[in-house]
Amino acid sequence: MAKELYELNEAIPTGEVPKKMYAMTIREDRFGEPKKAFQKEVVDVPEIGPDDALVLVKAAGINYNNVWAALGIPLNMVDVHRKDQNDQSGFHIGGSDASGIVYKIGANVKNVKVGDEVVVHCGMWDVNNADIKAGKVDPIVHVSNRIWGYEVNYGSFAQFTKLQGHQLLPKPKHMNWEQSAAYMLVGATAYRMLMGFPEHTVRKDDVVLIWGGAGGLGSMAIQIVREMGGKPIAVISEANKVDYCKNLGAIGVINRKDFNHWGMLPHWKDDAKYGEWLKGVRAFGKAIWEIAGKGVSPRIVFEHPGETTIPTSAYVVERGGMVVICAGTTGYNATVDLRYHWMHQKRLQGSHFANDAQATAFNNLVLEKRIDPCLSKTVAFDEIGDLHQIMYENKHPHGNMVSTVQVG
Ligand code: NAP
Description:
β12, α8 and β13 (252-255) form a beta-alpha-beta unit. The strands form 4 sheets. Strands 3, 5, 6, 9, 10, 17 and 18 form a 7-stranded mixed beta sheet that branches. A 6-stranded parallel beta sheet has the order 13-12-11-14-15-16, sandwiched between helices. The protein has 13 helices and 18 strands. It is globular, with a radius of gyration of 22 Å. α6 (184-195) packs across α7. The protein has 408 residues and is an alpha/beta fold. Helix content is 28%, strand content 21%. Bound molecules: NADP nicotinamide-adenine-dinucleotide phosphate.
């Protein structure tokens, strides 16, 4: 018979599910700086449905999405749970990366069993939708798609997490719990961006420009491009990130602080300002050519900063190339000089997480020891808010950060 509540350092017999659990919650009256928004409390362990599984969380990865959840912008996630899923709990348990052990499965879950050691991908959708089942629509594009631990409650910042069975993939045997929790969200996202949009998948010798090369997404993107035989060029803002990116496989690194043409595109009728911008973006393009060779521009630009960088990305990508974007960390207004866009037949492609096949393909690269999880910092459960705070302040170390959860 399971106890009502186990401590974080106490062993919980496999398959025994207590009534209560420790969780790091966000509530609406605490929205703001992550260090204050996250607080530990005891809540009920969630019930699962026939397509779901309950996983004991050994370690949880930290991602930027729960910086947004803590701030309460652009969306109030507690309200999203209330209205979207009729979840009246009044709290948000974030966490979109985890490693752990399966403790309970629903009747329809066939890909795992109780006791399996797993990692979790964060893509959820209506698994019973007829179009998805028939393969007519990519599930991560379908209107029912949601991100576990962000748009859906009961993520990995708790002793137990509730998810759909198809989200579970084998944990790499050569990695510990913390390393295993570090890579999936950013890795599978980067994989879809780089391999999910034919004809613009990375080919041998393709130059790929990667913003935030030492960040979570960037560190995965550099390695994927390297593994596909491409030539990653990383952009960074601190000299101490250069060697880090090169060691991951970047053929060259550009410091964005050497340029100052950032921000929204000046109006094309404003000759003086536009001319100044053009000078800046051409200097940036020259820095790429100095690495890749004269006249060699990136076939793919890997974008996520958004507003401040997208005019540059759209300009420097080669004719017929693709700018692929999954976020707007600096803002959402994408300004593009359409003259270059249509005459040079460029593509601006949105991308959001990954489907099962892409998450599996990326996990296989990890299982084959071809991708390093880039784990840079591990903290105890109580410090989850602090890790989100340093991420919010862009003061976090290179790569990915993790919190331990159930250590017993
Ligand atoms: P991260 O680890 O913080 O890395 C982001 C990098 O962006 C930083 O290392 C920083 O590098 C760079 N950066 C910051 N400000 C910049 C600016 N003004 N111009 C250019 N680069 C700048 O975060 P992440 O995990 O890679 O995530 C990045 C964004 O993608 C977040 O908004 C996140 O929510 C989003 N995301 C979306 C999805 C999706 O599926 N849609 C998935 C994962 C992440 P330097 O300062 O060195 O340049």
